[in-house]
Structures are given as C-alpha cells and as structure tokens.
C-alpha cells in the first residue's frame, strides 16, 4: 500500500506556515489525495497529547478510512512499550524506530538485549517493529542485529537515502536489507554543487529526477508482492518563503504519488 507520512508534511506542520497543519488536517488531506495510509513518524506532539486527544485523532483516522502506522526513535523497552500502547490506540500494525534515540546511544549488544525484552509484546499484539537504515549504524550491522534477535515481528524500515552520509551506496543498502524489510520510506535524493563550486549539498529531489534507483528497490525488495507499505517522504530544503516552500512540498507529493502509482 502507498502511504503518506508526516515528513511529507514537514513544512506544512512547521511553525513557519501561516496556519500550521494539524495532525487531523494531514489525515484529511491524505484521504483527499486518494491515499488510505498515513504514518505518524517523529511527530513530537504525539507524545504529550492527552488520552482524549489521542482517541479523537484515532477516531478521525478511522472515520476517514485511514490505516495508521507510527514512528519514533530509540529501542529502550519503556519507550517501545509506550509506542506499543499508542499503536493499540490507533489500531496500528507497524511501529518504525531507530537504534539510537534522543537520549540513548546503545551498543549493538545492548540494543539486542533491549529488543529481546520488548519484541515478545509486539509478537503478542501482532504489531511489527521496523528499525530504519540510517548513518549512525552500518547497514550490515543493522541487518545483523535484526537477524540475531530473530523475531518475525522485527524487521527493517528501508530508507537508502540516509546511508549515503556513512559513505554507503544506496543500492548496496537495498540488497543487504531486502530479506528483512517491513516498511519503505520513499523519497528521491541528489547532490548539487554549492555556490562557488566549493562542496556539495545533499538533499531531496522530485521523485524520478534524482539518484534513487527505485526500480532496483522494487525488484530487490518486491514490496507490493510482500505486502510492504511504501511511505512518501521528502527532503525539501526551504525555498525562501513559506508559500513557495509549502506549494513545492505539495507538488513533490503529487509527483511522488503519480510516480509510484504508475510504476508496476
């Protein structure tokens, strides 16, 4: 299933917008674009919303016919327990996380211990936990961690754009993680020379115009055959003013959805 996530609404949610989009507003916009899936990912207000506010958001998503996924950072057992509880509120069947959290940088051995402590609860609830590929943990090490814990409910959220900062190749990241993927973050990316030709900027690009070999990902991972959801995100730099930035963000979403829908 193709979905949108909060990173597709990064600037629309931000306080730079004249009227920042609410979470329920993002749900409504997602549905208006004919999309049935939304990933609430790294959305800070989620953690301090009251029980009534959470129930209201979950009810709004349900009324719109949206499937919800959640995303956070960190693998401390108490933190994962909190997001497992939130997943049950939203009837979410996947939580994306990262090995490192805002206040913790565990060794891989410590992370494995924490994950073994937590994953049984995810198994009992029928909810997947997907650890994202990114630059702070090598792709091979992340795949090895998932393999060692050895649960069918633990896998990888594949975002090959992130690993370039570790001087890893996106195609290699895709191939290493393919057997373990449970979620895909979809965005294109490219390098551009900085002004004066001194160095490069690495950032997002409209889908299909950058360096991401998405057909290779589709062939290697087979997300649509395996029922793996593809979540649209953007790395859109600030465009000089809020109106232009938000208009561009929405245009990138349209381009990405069209690209995914037209790709078998």
Structural overview:
GO terms for molecular function: isomerase activity. Pfam families: AP_endonuc_2 (PF01261). Residues 78-254 form the Xylose isomerase-like TIM barrel domain. The chain has 264 residues and is an alpha/beta fold. The chain has one domain: TIM Barrel (Alpha-Beta Barrel), CATH 3.20.20. The chain has helices at residues 10-13, 23-32, 51-63, 77-90, 108-125, 139-149, 170-177, 214-221, 223-226, 242-261; strands at 2-5, 37-41, 67-71, 94-97, 128-132, 154-158, 181-186, 188-193, 200-205, 229-232. The strands form two sheets. An eight-stranded parallel beta barrel has the order 1-2-3-4-5-6-7-10, surrounded by six helices. It has a two-stranded antiparallel ribbon with strand order 8-9. Helix 5 packs across helix 6 and helix 7 packs parallel to helix 8. The two termini are 13 Å apart.
């Amino acid at each position: 299933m193709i979905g949108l996530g909060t990173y597709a609404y990064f600037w629309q949610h931000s306080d730079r917008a004249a009227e920042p989009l609410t979470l329920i507003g993002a749900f409504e916009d997602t549905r208006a674009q004919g999309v049935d899936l939304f990933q609430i990912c790294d959305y800070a207000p989620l953690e301090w919303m009251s029980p009534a506010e959470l129930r209201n958001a979950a009810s709004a998503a349900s009324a719109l016919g949206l499937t919800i996924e959640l995303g956070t950072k960190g693998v401390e057992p108490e933190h994962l327990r909190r997001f497992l509880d939130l997943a049950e509120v939203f009837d979410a069947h996947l939580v994306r996380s990262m090995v490192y959290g805002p206040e913790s940088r565990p060794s891989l051995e410590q992370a494995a211990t924490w994950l073994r402590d937590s994953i049984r609860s995810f198994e009992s609830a029928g909810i997947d936990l997907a650890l994202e590929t990114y630059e702070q943990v090598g792709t091979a090490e992340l795949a090895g961690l998932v393999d060692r814990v050895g649960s069918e409910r633990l896998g990888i959220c594949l975002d090959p754009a992130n690993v370039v900062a570790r001087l890893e190749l996106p195609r290699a990241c895709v191939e290493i993680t393919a057997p373990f993927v449970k979620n895909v973050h979809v965005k294109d990316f490219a390098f551009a020379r900085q002004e004066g030709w001194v160095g490069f900027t690495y950032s997002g690009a409209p889908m299909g115009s950058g360096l991401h070999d998405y057909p290779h990902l589709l062939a290697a991972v087979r997300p649509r055959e395996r029922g793996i959801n593809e979540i649209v995100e953007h790395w859109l730099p600030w465009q000089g003013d809020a109106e232009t930035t938000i208009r561009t963000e929405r245009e990138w979403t349209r381009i990405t959805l069209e690209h995914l829908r037209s790709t078998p």
